[in-house]
Each structure stands twice: as C-alpha cells, then as structure tokens.
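Design a sequence for this backbone.
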C-alpha cells in the first residue's frame, strides 16, 4: 500500500511562523486524527516563507500569563508535541530557517530533521527570563547530550545548521533549494518499508525514553513558576518594545 507524503506548512510567515494558540489547536487536531482520509504514510513539517521554520511560541501571547496559566500552556504544548513524537507515521522536519524556542522544540519532536544551510537553532528563552516549556529541556539532552544541551539552554545561544549537524541535532544539511527534495527522498525510502514496522519502530524508540515523563512535568511546573516573575514580564515586554531587557532577578 503506497500513500501520499503529506506536507504540513507552518503558515504565519509575517510573524516568522511563531506558534500562537490557533496553530497549537490546529496541530493538536491534526495529530489527534489518524488522517486515514488522506492515505498519507509520511508527513513533512516545514515553515512557510524563506526565513523561518518557527521562531518560537508567540511571545505576544505569553506576556501577562499567570503562573497557573503558564504551567497549563506548557503542558498543552508538551502534550501536542508528544502526540507528534508518538504519531504512527514517520514525520520529517524540513527546517528552512529559524527554529527557535518552541520552533526548535517542534523540530525535535519530529522523527527525522533535515536543515537548510540557512537554518538557525536555539532555545533563547532565558533571554526572555523564562525556560523552554514544550519539552526543550528534555529533548535537547536526548538528542545532543547533557553537556552541550545545558550550555545552549543556559546561554540561549543560537547555532547554525552545520553546528546543529555536528552535534547530532539534525540528520542532514542541504542547500535551501534542495531541502524539500531531500525530505521527499527520505520519505520515499520509508514509503517502501512496512507501515506496521515503521510505527513499531516509532513506538519502540519512544519507549526507550518513557521514563522521561517526570522531566516533562517538572519542566511545565518550573515554566509556570518562572512565568510569574517580574523578570519574565520584563523579558516579554522588552521583546514587544524591541529593546534589551533589564532583569532584576525578581
Ligand atoms: N513571537 C511573536 N512574534 C514574533 C516572534 C515570536 N516568537 N518571533 C518573531 N516575531 C515577529 C516580530 O515581532 C516581527 O513582527 P513585527 O513585524 O510585527 O514587528 C516579525 O515576527 C519579524 O521578526 P523580526 O524580529 O523583525 O525579524 P528579525 O529578522 O529582525 O529577527 C529573530 C529574527 C528570530 C532573531 C527575532 O524575531 C527573534 O528573536 N524572535 C524571538 C525568538 C525567541 O525568543 N523565541 C522563543 C520564544 S519563547
């Protein structure tokens, strides 16, 4: 049985595909369904426009959240990204530009990542006075190891595609114009494999990390706590006002 490759575009290019609540709801409903009606057997997620895969959660929506609201938003994002990671079809992230914050976390939830040479990766949340809340503190360690992951999480530094490849964050780097062809090539290979075997591999790989569950809960709780600080209010306000934040440690 040979189905189609379904291409899912993150489509908010004017905001660098920043993930707002509408996009989260759409991702949730997409990955909650079996999508049998499309007869797809592989999915590619990419970003619309030249600049970004996704530049993070929508900072304008994060500003002003209470601690409880932030924790629940974090859990919601984590659950949606886990649905992606646990989806029965292989999912390739074709990372065409910025994959920052929630965008990097979404890329990490995909099963295979291919980056354009123009892509940039990072978890810059600490610069806003917050921590990653959609699984970034867990999946970055799983993919590249504790040492480098902790450095990237603590500095908020961005890395380019070559460095992401060197660290094992992405599987391949291509020229931007070859990105979708390369993704289709890998999809085509998997399409010739047994569909039940593919979903068995996905389940088994995820099982290896099943004890990580506590880490996700801890991340969401900490996200909620840090989100109620003055520093986070200042960090998000400074982004919206296009200036550097002045943190007080409060
Ligand atoms: N949330 C909401 N809006 C965002 C956004 C985000 N995460 N990232 C970018 N945007 C918006 C900008 O506000 C801007 O909108 P405007 O034209 O209405 O002012 C538009 O997207 C273009 O972004 P801009 O900052 O002008 O592009 P740039 O090329 O100068 O910089 C980035 C690109 C990615 C370096 C910069 O947008 C950025 O730092 N984004 C936030 C990254 C981040 O901290 N993500 C983690 C969030 S938790």
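Sequence:
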């Amino acid at each position: 049985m040979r189905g189609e490759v379904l291409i899912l575009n993150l489509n908010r290019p004017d905001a660098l595909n920043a993930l707002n609540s509408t996009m989260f709801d759409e991702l949730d409903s997409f990955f909650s369904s079996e999508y049998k009606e499309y007869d797809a057997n592989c999915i590619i997620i990419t970003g619309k426009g030249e600049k970004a895969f996704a530049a993070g959660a929508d900072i304008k929506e994060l500003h002003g959240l209470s601690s409880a609201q932030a924790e629940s938003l974090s859990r919601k994002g984590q659950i949606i990204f886990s649905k992606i990671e646990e989806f029965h079809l292989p999912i390739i992230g074709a990372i065409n530009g910025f994959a920052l914050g929630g965008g990097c976390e979404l890329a990490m939830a995909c099963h295979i990542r291919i980056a354009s040479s123009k892509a940039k990766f990072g978890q810059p949340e600490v610069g806003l006075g917050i921590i990653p809340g959609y699984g970034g503190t867990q999946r970055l360690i799983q993919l590249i190891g504790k040492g480098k992951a902790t450095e990237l999480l603590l500095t908020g530094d961005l890395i380019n595609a070559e460095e992401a490849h060197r660290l094992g964050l992405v599987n391949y780097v291509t020229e931007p114009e070859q990105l979708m062809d390369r993704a289709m090539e890998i999809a085509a290979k998997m399409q010739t494999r047994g569909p039940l075997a593919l979903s068995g591999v996905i389940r088994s790989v995820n099982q290896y990390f099943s004890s990580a569950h506590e880490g996700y809960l801890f991340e969401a709780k900490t996200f909620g706590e840090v989100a109620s600080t003055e520093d986070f209010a200042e960090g998000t306000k400074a982004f919206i006002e296009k200036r550097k934040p002045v943190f007080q440690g409060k």
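Residues 5-178 form a domain with the 2-enoyl-CoA Hydratase; Chain A, domain 1 fold (CATH 3.90.226.10).
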